[in-house]
Design a protein that fits this description.
Blueprint: H1 40-49, H2 51-64, E1 70-74, H3 80-88, E2 93-98, H4 101-113, E3 120-124, E4 138-144, H5 153-162, E5 164-173, E6 177-180, H6 193-210, H7 222-228, E7 232-243, H8 249-266, H9 272-281, E8 298-308
Parallel strand pairs: 1-2, 1-4, 2-3, 4-5
Antiparallel strand pairs: 5-8, 6-8, 7-8
Length: 311
């Protein structure tokens, strides 16, 4: 990713990627060529909203990964999660790696604002090859919704594993569930709109994957793929973001961005009723819009898979 990229629910994470693709980030675009720098604000707002979920995931990782010296965030985007790593692991140096220099500029600025700039670095270049430039092996390498933007995921996992210190951990954020913002029947249009949007997002995501350079079709059995990369002790855990109604202004803005991106990316595949419903959801003057309706919430699940390089 440069991508909850998504970059989600973006991108870097729907990569918002919404990096929503269903699978989770919340990605949406009219085509599948993502301008990550243009998505910087969306990637930041998504990751900030999902911070409680990321904090839970990092706390879980911290029980297994004790006192890492170097943490590498692969496909860091604007560095929201990279900076969380610096906060959760105060003894660690954190390196944010991404293909987008403008996003890394934002990551560095965030680290300075948060007072962790002295142990925060950035590395720009194409993944996974740029990882050859690491000066030291990583004790923890995190890929948050970035792996699925690489054509050959199996080869990328092998490359990631080779950059680990013996006993080091690779953690990938892939899978989860499509985010939900509204009840099945929210009073306008035909019930089940979000499920229909999920199906269109799946089509978008598959097209995005097939259009990547060197794209290889791969069954998404992440523990098996981690094992095939020579890593051991695969574990999986999912984490919940539960922001019930009434929604905060930040949650409303995020929902509006997700629905807006969805409208832009899949509008041609929607029937006229669903398109009209989306238009009402996005009209700030409409009491039924996500900007004003009282029943809006954010419910999201992200899944983390880890494995260890044998000592």
């Amino acid at each position: 990713m440069a991508h909850d990229h998504h970059h989600t629910d973006t991108p870097k994470h729907t990569h918002t990627h919404t990096h929503t693709h269903s699978h989770s980030h919340d990605h949406a675009h009219s085509n599948t060529d993502i301008d990550w720098a243009e998505m910087a604000g969306h990637l930041e707002s998504q990751a900030e909203l999902f911070a409680p979920l990321y904090e839970s995931a990092l706390s879980w990782l911290g029980k297994e990964v004790t006192e890492p010296g170097l943490i590498v965030d692969v496909g860091s985007g604007p560095g929201v999660v990279s900076c969380l790593f610096a906060e959760v692991f105060p003894g660690a140096r954190v390196l944010a790696v991404d293909g987008s220099e403008p996003l890394l500029d934002r990551a560095r600025a965030r680290a300075e604002r948060q007072g962790v700039g002295d142990r925060f670095g950035v590395l720009a270049g194409e993944l996974p090859g740029v990882l050859d430039e690491l000066d030291y092996p990583a004790d923890l390498l995190w890929a948050g919704h970035s792996l699925h933007h690489l054509g050959d995921q199996r080869a990328a996992l092998t490359a990631f594993g080779e950059r680990l210190a013996p006993g080091g951990t690779l953690a990938i954020l892939e899978g989860g569930l499509p985010s939900r913002f509204l009840p099945r029947d929210f009073g306008i249009g035909r019930p089940g709109l979000q499920a229909r949007l999920d199906a269109l997002q799946e089509k978008w995501f598959e097209r995005m994957r097939t259009e990547l350079p060197d794209s290889v079709t791969e069954a998404e059995d992440w523990p098996a793929l981690l094992s095939s990369a020579g890593l051991k002790y695969a574990r999986t855990r999912s984490f919940l973001l539960d922001l019930p109604a009434p929604a905060s202004a930040r949650a409303r803005a995020y929902a509006a961005e997700i629905f807006s991106r969805l409208r832009d990316s899949v509008a041609d595949d929607l029937d006229s009723d669903d398109r009209a419903t989306l238009d009402r959801l996005l009209d700030p003057a409409d009491p039924a819009s996500v900007h004003r309706r009282p029943d809006l919430f954010v419910l999201g699940v992200r899944t983390v898979h880890t494995a260890v390089r044998p000592a």
